[in-house]
Design a protein that fits this description.
The complex is a heterotrimer of chains A (312), B (370) and C (272).
Chain A (H helix, E strand, L loop, with lengths): L5 E2 L5 H44 L2 E3 L5 E4 L3 H8 L1 H32 L6 H9 L6 H11 L6 H8 L14 H26 L3 H9 L4 H29 L3 H6 L11 H10 L4 H29 L4
Antiparallel strand pairs in A: 2-3
Helix pairs in contact in A: 1-12, 2-12, 3-7, 3-9, 7-9, 9-12, 11-12
Chain B lengths: L3 E9 L5 E10 L4 E5 L6 H9 L6 E6 L2 E2 L10 E4 L11 H11 L4 H15 L14 H14 L4 E5 L7 H18 L2 E6 L2 H7 L2 E6 L2 E6 L1 H6 L4 H6 L6 E8 L2 E4 L3 E4 L14 E5 L5 E2 L7 E10 L3 E8 L2 E8 L9 E5 L6 E4 L5 E3 L13
Parallel strand pairs in B: 3-8, 3-9, 6-7, 7-8
Antiparallel strand pairs in B: 1-2, 1-4, 4-5, 9-10, 11-12, 11-14, 12-13, 14-20, 15-19, 16-17, 16-19, 17-18, 20-21
Chain C lengths: L1 H32 L3 H5 L11 H9 L2 H32 L5 H11 L8 H10 L6 H5 L6 H12 L3 H9 L4 H12 L1 H16 L3 H6 L8 H11 L5 H35 L1
Classes of the chains: A mainly alpha (312), B alpha+beta (370), C mainly alpha (272).
Chain lengths: 312, 370, 272
Amino acid sequence: MNQVALPFKQIEANDLERMTKKQKRIKTFKGFSFLAPSVLLFSLFLFYPLGRTIYLSLFLTNSSGITTVFVGLENYQNIFLSPIFLKSLQSTFLFVLYTVPGAILVSLFLAIIANEKLKGIGFFRTMYASTMGISTAAASVFWLFLFHPTIGWLNQLLNVIGVAPIGWLTDPEWALISVAISTVWMNIGFTFLVLLGGLQSIDYYLYESADIDGAGYFYKLRRITLPMLSPTLFFVITVTFINAFQTFGQIDMLTRGGPQNETHLMVYSIYQEAFMNYQFGTASAQAIILFVFILVLTIIQFKLGERKVHYQ
Amino acid sequence: MHPVELIAVSKSYDRTTKVLEHIDLTIEEGEFFVLVGPSGSGKSTLLRMIAGLESITGGELRLKGNMVNHLPPKDRHLSMVFQNYALYPHLTVKQNILFGLHAKKVKKAEQEQRLYETAEMMGLTDLLNRKPKQLSGGQRQRVALARSVVSQAPLCLMDEPLSNLDAKLRAHMRVEIRRLQKKLGLTMIYVTHDQVEAMTMGDRIMVLNDGTIQQIGQPIELYNQPANLFVASFIGSPKMNLGEATIEDQQLTIEQTLQLPLSMSDIPQVIQRRNLIVGIRPEHLAYAKPEEADLWLEVINIEHLGNETLLTFEVGRELWTAKWLGQWLIQVGERVPLSVSIKHFSFFNRDSGALIQAPTENQHLEVVAL
Amino acid sequence: MTTSLRRKVVFYTLLTLTAFLVFAPTFIAFMMSFMSNQEIMTGQIIPRSLTFDNYVQVFQRFPLMQYLLNSLIVSLLIMVGQLVISSLAAYAFVFIDFKGRDLIFFIFIATMMVPFEASIIPNFHTIRDLNWIDSYPGLSVPFFAMAFGTFLLRQHFKQIPKELKEASEISGIGDFKFYLTVVLPVAKSSLVTLGVYGFLTSWNMYLWPLLATTDDRFRTVQIGLRQLQTQEQLNEWGVIMAGAVIVVIPTLVLLFVGQKKLQQGLTEGALK
């Protein structure tokens, strides 16, 4: 690409334009070559499959996933008439309702107390963050034991205080709540870390000037900490929401969707429909519904967030 | 063949508003050329166009007689020093200096040779293994200069290289850069917003405002014969005292408050009588013995600089400053006698801002030529 | 003085109590992994005698070593793949100005709204058709392109002064060399952050390895743990816990070491 300087007056205006265009083309080419791996992989493993899922959702398929009969929107009609899917929708919403506020409130509380400048605070922070290093599978094993009907610690504790044991994972009344509790615990690490980071990025002089004005602890919390934290809070709420909709591992390990389909959450339902029953058409329709939920949620949160969140 | 020539060069980002308009400029071999102007005047854009970092919208840029509008920066054979020095933070001083030579495929032995010479010249020999973080502002500045020197490019561009230094170091580096440029015979294009830097360093200066050339000339020329009101008030510190004026019956009235007698022979080029703006440098508002005073003005502020004293007066809606050598014990509110000579006034057209007549006499001591 | 002391007491009490609650499940699991089955059944809290029996057993009865190795390989592959591909993309978004850049950037943002589940069925078929079921590429390649990583790095690359790029342009350093010799070393700490994050999430991945492996030779530890839990008839809790503890140790260590970096990185990703 080494170009030689041209002797003067040899260049016409359109030559120049041509050369500028060439420069631009080179830049575009360079830009796309740096992006090529991402674009290629996104196309292969994200855009194509997304389109393909929509396509599949309009068909019946055989067990290897090849489309057989075009049924249009019938798959969608069917799943919305299916009591199991409706139950699954209901459970998913309940689950989101339990886990999102649960994880956010607990983590926010932990982040606020761990943001104090005290000796040994690093130890406590590490403890709170630890659940982020524990995989869904391992965490499920931990909780499987805690929820164990006879030797599990939770029932033993209940026994000590004289309450009748609970069938944490086997009682339809409790199963979803139990899974939600373990999920909140799993989420604490990540949400805590992000919120603590948000707290630490608040300028200290804000507190100092409030101290000079004689503001109390809770006043500062309400008037400085929470408003300044709102962008971070907004981010973790979105992430927790999406994660809750995508819950799978703990269901597979703890309850397998039972008892009485109480914990048959959407992703588990998709998994069963596609990879156990080989109904790829209806499974795809469910996957598209999940996609739409998440899309709408993200957009709503963005719109709300834009207005309400205080950005510095 | 001139090292740099600009012919009707212009720049616009959106085809409607021009950032630079019709720039014609020729720079001589070995010249220290300063581009000066307020921020947003387009001076940095112009420099970056010469470097090839910004595209040229219209006109021609020639380096050594060759049209280079289309060439990428690396093929223009020039070096550049940036305001923030652009040192690579993860490389040592030595690696920083040599970084560009690797790309130009200079032989290893020659690299060493050039590194040694440059480091010696810039006083960096002891710092070669340090990282930029471990250097002071002045040392970083010198590394940036060394990187430029080591490339042996005949044309060097500098974009406000001293603005991150404190005042004392800045004065020192002004001298150092100037000496280096003369010693190596570099052609230098130097951008600054600081008129003192421009005046003290440049062989020639171009004053730029709103993307158009205001004046090109030697520092003294710009000071003595500013082409328009912008240059008059931009060059010189404290700035030139300006005021609206009219001429009536052999009398100059400034801001409707000051009146000075004048004869037509004093101002041969001033034909118009109204819509004038006159200007006078602070050093030409001199102290007069009370009995010889042309004017009496009330002092509204006084600044003691040690070797000189600045006095501020109210003249109509303008604040005028006088600069007197030495220390004067004057109180705010006192009226002081001043001598003013018509010969020291510049006359401008109020509407166009253009100079009508430069002062016929410039200094107490005339410019001395040795 | 007294209010400050009271404050301290309040905070330390809260901190200790909550830390105990949050860490309890992990702590119990650790303890159990050193207990004999009898001790567990009788509801002991602290093991009377440390026994490594459970660990020996879990390695003997399960190909845990193979699972660990698979997880390590897959996580490293994903980590490196994500770093390379995200940093290349982030470089283009920051340092190369070309037509269509904003549009592509918008598309990148849009990919974050697509849950993996919405594409999992065709992806499974793709991997199957490529004969990548039970293979390392099948487990890792679908996760190489990563919008979040691209954003995180873009944020950090943007903090590199533009003048560095311009200075290299003047000295004739090409884009790829600049990316390799300036951008990557200067942004090292953000690469570490993303690397830790990528490794953690890959190591803990569940659904995809469940689908993409059928055979012990390629199974990852998470799926191994699932096997362990379903095959052991819920009696040998000590063995299961030993397995779980081995699975979480690498990520816990990584988290403890990289916690500060991770926290900074994630917060920046959240805010900008």
